[in-house]
Amino acid sequence: MRTLILGFLVFLVWAFGCRYWYVCKIKNHCGEKTEIVENLRSKTLSLVDQDKTILKDYDHFSFDANSAIPILNESNNTFIAEVAAYLKANPDKKLTITGNYLESEKDISVGMYENLGVARASEIRKKLIAAGIAEDRMLLNGNLIAGEDLSEPIGFGIVNVVTTDGTPDDYDDNGKTVGAQAFSFTNMSFSDANFDYNSAKFKPGSAFKAYADSVKIYMTENEDKYLRLTGHTCDIGGDAANLRLGKARARSVRDYFTDLGIKAKIETASEGESNPAYSNDSEPEKGKNRRVVVQIK
């Protein structure tokens, strides 16, 4: 009996030692407690339609550095569902999604997107498509921001296709949206330094090359489709000269597709300076307007 009791006491000492080692040494739950600080998100995400606030005080989306994949929490998922519900209830409205990216991320392209901002906006668009919103009701933009603070990586806005007085809202004088584009496979724009000022020499980046390879495969498999290339310019210079320059840029991109081996019909057109995607208020914005839009018809 004494041996049994002694063995039991030895077992208790051994069990206590094992627990101490696990709790204190492995889990580090003994001694002075370490304060755990939660990485809180900014709760200022909103959706505004003209002067009316539709949604407010939601958590902002979060992204790892150099990544286009959003880290979603419950607040983000609720926001997406509420935005989808608003668009379904208002079929005359479109949504702009602006993805921000830092100076340290400016050389990163993802797939067919020239910058990380547009790629981030595209990932959010995918969530809204899954929620039942048609792709053509959403426009994307990428915005380079100064500093190292990405606490507000995604912005949203409503575009009213027609307002109550019958005029377009958030459009330029030509009735075109400014600052956002379709950025879809069948309606893609490339504007990040592909053309120098007053030049039609095409300088494709890695994003365009990846896109062009996909277009070649698609056109081979869909022989009834054709390409329409529309060249654009900034607002420097006269209308006639810019129309010619836009046409020359479209032809340069056509030559790239032809050299790649695409045998489908390729139409070229020009809108010159008449349909800016960006404001033309600064040299970077003017540079983005020197672009060619590729449409698959």
Q: Tell me the fraction of residues in β-strands, as a range.
A: 15-25%
Shape: globular
Distance between the termini: 92 Å
What is the CATH architecture descriptor of the largest domain? 2-Layer Sandwich
* Structure annotation, total helices: 6
Order of strands, main sheet, comes to 8-11-9-10
Biggest pleated-sheet summary:
4 strands, mixed
| Topology as a string of helices (H) and strands (E) | HEEEEHEHEEEHEHEHE
Number of individual domains: 2
Computed Rg: 27 Å
Q: Low-confidence runs (pLDDT<50, min 5 residues)?
A: 32-38, 162-177
Short structural summary:
The chain has helices spanning 2-26, 74-89, 116-130, 206-221, 239-260, 283-289, and strands at residues 45-49, 52-58, 62-63, 70-71, 93-102, 138-145, 154-160, 187-190, 227-232, 266-272, 292-296. The protein is an alpha+beta fold. It has a four-stranded mixed β-sheet with strand order 8-11-9-10, covered by helices on one side. A three-stranded mixed β-sheet has the order 6-5-7.
Secondary structure blueprint with pairings:
Blueprint: H1 2-26, E1 45-49, E2 52-58, E3 62-63, E4 70-71, H2 74-89, E5 93-102, H3 116-130, E6 138-145, E7 154-160, E8 187-190, H4 206-221, E9 227-232, H5 239-260, E10 266-272, H6 283-289, E11 292-296
Parallel strand pairs: 5-6, 9-10
Antiparallel strand pairs: 1-2, 3-4, 5-7, 8-11, 9-11
